[in-house]
Amino acid sequence: MSKVSRLALGLALAALCHLTPAALAAPASEAASEAGAQQAPAISHGEAAAELKRLQTEQDRIKQQASDPEGNTRLHELEETLQKLDADVDKLSSALTPQRAQLQAQLDVLGPPPAAATTKEAPAVVRQRADLNARRAQLDAQLKQAGESKANIANLSDQLARLQRGQMKDQLALRSESILNPQFWKPLVSPTQEDQARLATFTDQVVPMAQLAWQPSQRAATIALLLLALAVWTLGRRLAERALAWFCLHKLPETRLRRSALALSTTLATVCTTGLAVQLVYNAFTRSYELPPDLVELYGQLLKLTLTSALIAGLGRALLCTRHPSWRLPALADPVALAMKPFPAVLAGLLLLAGTLEQLNRIADTSVQVTLLGRGLVSLVVVLTIGAALLRANRVRNLLAAAGERPEARATLAGMIHAGVSVIVLVSVVALLAGYISFARFLTYELVWFDIVLCSLYLLTQVTRDVCESLLSTNYASGRVIKQLFGVDDSHLEQASTILSGIGASVLLLVAVLALLTGGFGTTPADLLNSLVMVLGGEKLHSLNIMPDRILNALVALGVGIWLLRSVRRWLDGELLPKVCKEPGLRASLITLYSNVGYVLLVLLVLSLLGVRWDNLAWIVSALSVGIGFGLQEIVKNFVSGLILLTERPVKVGDMVSIAGVEGDIRRINVRATEIQLGDRSTVIVPNSQLISQNLRNVTMSNSTQGVASLQLTFPLNTDPEQLRDLLLDVYRENESILDVPAPSVMFSQLAPNGITLSVTGYVGSPRIAANTRSDLLFEILKRLRAADISLSVPQSLRLENMPPFGQEPERALAAG
Q1: How far is CA 564 from the centre of its chain?
Q2: Is pLDDT above 60 for 393?
Q3: Which run of H or of E encompasses 18?
Q4: Which of 528, 190, 200 is nearest to 369 (CA)?
Q5: What does the record give under GO molecular function (predicted)?
Q6: Strand, coil or helix: what is 184?
Q7: What torsion do the CA atoms of 252, 254, 256, 257 make, to the nearest 10 degrees?
Q8: Predicted confidence (pLDDT) per residue in 350-368, tens digit
Q9: Distance of alpha carbon 552 from alpha carbon 550, whole angstroms
Q10: Which residue, 174, 268, 352, 627, has most beta carbons within 10 Å?
Q11: Highest mean predicted confidence (pLDDT) among 72-76, 365-369, 391-395, 632-636
Q12: What pLDDT is recorded for position 68?
């Protein structure tokens, strides 16, 4: 190749190297431009910046309103505004995130800048990469600002919640006029001009809606929807109840599930038809009218109040079940159920009316006097209704007792609940008379919430138990299918049913406790106690670091924990363990171990709720360690020995033991000592450490439960041994306590100058009857020896033995010679 040719080829390669980056950059730039044209940003940079600025401004405005020194701010409206702002932040983040991903994809197409200094990129590629990096940095900053705004909104929401709870506590401590004072009822007769103006403003929002729905063109549809709502609420409810009752009676198995399912269906039918009727009424007036935000909020509150009232009425009808007393779930006498029949419906209706008035006052933002009047009406309605129900039920029970009829059996827990409700009603009446209207309203609302939760828990617990029993019963198709599918026997199905029902009841109980502790109507029991303490001068208590809410939570946890431990213990002893474990001793040990561990954990939980920190108790632990080393060592030793007895089980409840001259049956193994019942029915308390450290004879520990009745008799040398053998065997065989297998036996044990010695042995069903059996045998043997003119040798030797059946050394029980 010539020099000219080589020079031309070099110039061509150099030009190609310089043109390649530009040629590659042009398609990349075109691809990025096409991608940007296909996916236009949902929001521009300026719009995103403006939206972030608006969100920040709204947050500052909410902070300013929430810190109003006069305290006239409606915190629930600010909470709703915060929820809307939170939704706007999520919407903005959702719009910015795809744009950021798109920019990152475009940068990935361009790739990183070349590392080599000799490699050059086209200026268009450099500018495009810089522009994309700048836009990505802006989006990252906006996304970061949106995240900070969301965190600030969450923080503001928590602060508003605390302010609302503080306002509630202040309102509970507020004292106004008594319900006996005419000034309390004055707003009902002559409201102030300010209240009239606020109610007129609210009416101006409602009247156009009613006028529009009542126009000639809309009137027929409105009337039709209202009539349909009435039909659903009355006729529809009855049809739904009858249909569900027919299903329960004809499609469900003939178990208790029919009763519980029927009660549940009655409650659900009442609530569902009522909710549907309210929705139809709402559609009748709002199908052509857009409600303002205040009316939308009012509708939501009224819907919740209506469904609550329907639930009260449904639970009352389902649990009282006056039409079919045999289907009634709770143990109520028929006269008592009939006496209480009208009260659930009356309570639901009056609570709906009084609650509606209170909601109207809240939406219209009426004065304090009108608000207190609404709260007083609500409290008065609930107190009078529940109090009248309690009085009427007690009067019927007293009449039954006076007539010689036995009232229904009531558990201790039911009596405690009855007493607690009576006390709350009495305290509410006193609060209304003293002028603590908000406090009385809180008590009555919480009382209603407690009744709802308690009745719902009872109904759902019954349904859960009955469903588990019917579903896993081999008497029905479901149980047989499960048995065939998993290859389990009937006992395992019964155990699974018990365990599942216990788990379901525990979950329902936990949900009920959480519902009661969190409060059903805007506050918690801890707020109530704090309010009472503040009224009684709680600043001094707070200065001493005594927290009423911690004390209340600890007391509630202690009461609920003790009741729960006892309930679970009764369930283990009465339902689960008899099906899982057939040995009574093991069941007793497991129950005792569960109780000990449960109470220890409960004490630790209560101390934790009281705010006790274990790192602050190091000096107490040190002092206890010294005390344990001296005075408490025996208690600790017995406690540890008791745990060993319950886990290792060398002895168990029901065993017959002998230790240090004490022989009897173990009746109970406690934490410190074991109770042994002797033959004379007296009880010996033996420390657990002795059962571990000393030699202990357990007569019934082996698999065999048989006892031994053994006699050793000496006769003269001239007596026929075969005749003696037959006589002794006949006596043993004829005795009812002697077992046929193993058969009685006679052994020639000794030949001496003073006579021959025969040992006769027979087995009985239990070691506990061996002594009585030996006594009966001796009576019969002596009788037959005299009849056969056979005498014992002189001196004679008579020995009775109580030997274990497995070749152990017999114990000398009686010797004469």
Answers
A1: 10
A2: yes
A3: helix 3-38
A4: 190
A5: mechanosensitive monoatomic ion channel activity
A6: helix
A7: -10
A8: 888 888 888 888 787 777 7
A9: 5
A10: 352
A11: 391-395
A12: 65
CB 337 within 8 A of CB 397: no
Range with lowest mean pLDDT among 34-38, 269-273, 489-493, 525-529: 34-38
Query: Long-range CB contacts (< 8 A, 24+ apart) of 415-421?
Result: 417/454, 418/390, 421/386, 421/390, 421/447, 421/450, 421/451
Supply the pTM of this predicted model: 0.60
Alpha carbon distances (Å) from 677 to 467, 655, 664, 689, 700: 43, 11, 5, 18, 15
- Residue 623 confidence (pLDDT): 59
In angstroms, rounded to a whole number, what is the distance separating the alpha carbons of residues 268 and 311?
8
Spatial separation of the C-alpha atoms in residues 77 and 189, rounded to whole Å: 30
State which amino acid sits at residue 203: T
Q: Is the dihedral of CA 213, 214, 215, 219 positive or negative?
A: positive
CB 664: neighbour CB atoms within 10 A?
22
Number of H helices, E strands in the chain: 27, 10
E-assigned strand segments in 197-237: none
Q: How many Å apart are CA 515 and CA 450, to the nearest integer?
A: 9
Q: What are phi and psi of 393, to 5 degrees?
A: -65, -40
Helix, coil or strand: residue 463: helix
Q: How far apart are CA 328 and CA 459, in angstroms?
A: 11
Cα–Cα distance measured from residue 314 to residue 286, given in angstroms and rounded to the nearest whole number: 28
**Region 774-802: what's the mean pLDDT?**
74
Of 568, 575, 415, nearest to 505 by C-alpha is: 568
| Nearest Cα residue to 438 out of 505, 358, 516, 384 | 358
| Residue, of 293 and 69, whose pLDDT is higher | 293
With the C-alpha atoms ordered 59, 64, 70, 72, is the resulting torsion angle positive or negative?
negative
Is residue 342 exposed (0-12), middle (13-18) or buried (19+ Cβ within 10 Å)? middle
Rounded CA gap, 351 and 345, in Å? 10
Q: How far apart are CA 752 and CA 714, in angstroms?
A: 10
The model's pLDDT over 501-510, given as tens digits with 9 standing for 90+, comes to 888 888 888 8
Tokens of 292: 């303002």
The position carrying tokens 């800048």 is: 113
Q: Are 345 and 328 in contact (CB under 8 A)?
A: no
End-to-end CA distance of the chain: 142
Going by C-alpha positions, the residue among 288, 283, 318 that lies closest to residue 303 is: 283
Nearest in space to 716 (alpha carbons), one of 778, 775, 759, 758: 758
- For the cut 80, the answer to whether the pLDDT of residue 409 exceeds it is no
Identity of the amino acid at 454: L
Q: In what order do the strands lie in the sheet with 656-659?
A: 683-687, 673-677, 662-669, 656-659, 697-698
Length of the chain: 817
Is the alpha carbon torsion for 725, 726, 727, 732 positive or negative? positive
Are 760 and 744 in contact by the 8 Å Cβ rule? The answer is yes
Q: Decide the pairing of beta strands 811-816 and 683-687.
A: unpaired
Q: Which long-range contacts (CB under 8 A, 24 or more apart) does 151-158 make?
A: 152/59, 153/59, 153/82, 153/85, 153/86, 153/89, 154/86, 156/59, 156/62, 156/63, 156/66, 156/82, 157/79, 157/82, 157/83, 157/86
Q: Is the dihedral of CA 351, 356, 362, 365 positive or negative?
A: negative
**Alpha-carbon span 169 to 358, nearest angstrom:** 18
Distance from C-alpha of 196 to C-alpha of 559, rounded to nearest angstrom: 49
The residue ranges of DSSP E strands in 621-754, in sequence order, are: 656-659, 662-669, 673-677, 683-687, 697-698, 707-715, 745-752
